[in-house]
Amino acid sequence: MGQLQQALLLVGAGIIAAVAGFNFWQSAQIRRRRARAEIVELEGERGRNERREPGLDDAHAGNEGTHADLDRARGRAFVAHIDPLIDAIASFGFDQPVPGESLAERLPRAARAGAKPLLFEGRNARSGLWEMLQTGERYAELQAAVQLASRSGPLNAIEYSEFVTKCHALGEALGTSPDLPDMAEVLEQARDLDHFAAGNDAQLSINLQARDVAWGLDFLRRHAQAAGFTALLGAGRLALLEPEPRAGAGDSEDHGNGAARLIPVVQLVYDAQAELADNPDVPVSRATLLLDVPQVPQALQPFNRMRDAAHRLAQDLDAREVDDNGAPLSAAVMEQIDAQLQHLYAVLDQRGLPAGSPAAQRLFS
What's the predicted TM-score (pTM) here? Predict the structure, then answer.
């Protein structure tokens, strides 16, 4: 073979790898607005189906158990704080400190404005710190906030008007007027944040396709458990949990119990209908590993964990690692994706929204 032919073959291989990498990344971007609805739906199925899957609880023998671990993983929903990077904030001042229970009684029953969540915090008159309202404490100021954007889109005029209406009603109940941000500025900030989020979101997947014989459901679950997927999120959905990295010895995210929250680093998804079927021998020929990039701290090296888990399961299950179109995922393609992820992490850091941070978890949800 001549040198020209060899050069052409190398160029062609590079082009194929680049196209495959682009398709993989593009597929991840498309998945960003679809995954959250799927998770909510499957968790609803779990609530309706009380059956416990055989063997999964055994992985946590002598520990807290799968469901206790999952409760800790979901604990992040209770530590959301107002953040000017992703919230529009209204403030209420008081002539004298007001008891926390008195403020809490007057908050809106529905802490939402359209599809956007509302948050309320008070400045503790004793410590001077902003915090969630606590019984027995008194507050010199109150803040109300509405989230500017999420995966459902930016805050719109109707939602902001609902927020303003609720703030005025709260102000009347408290005998004070709210200091509200300008609507035009808020909506512009919301559109800018949504544009940033849409361009820097990624939910990656690696598909495992059975080579010859489909797997039995118990066989698949047994090997998934051995690979670390021990938390049941819903029918046909398992998670690999890892402790959240500590920010420091004084980190207040432990909720006073000394135990780090657990984060679903990688999910394993397979046929939910097979999971719900009465026959435990229903064959399954495809499973997918999912990584919701902005939701997981970079320090946990989630993409490496995903790749390692995919390699192990591919060997144990006699499966091929393929993209959504069934094309093999080569090592070269994976390295390209990893390089793109490093750039994405850097962009999120520069915006003040590092992957896995509370603000990023709220924005990319």
Answer: 0.77
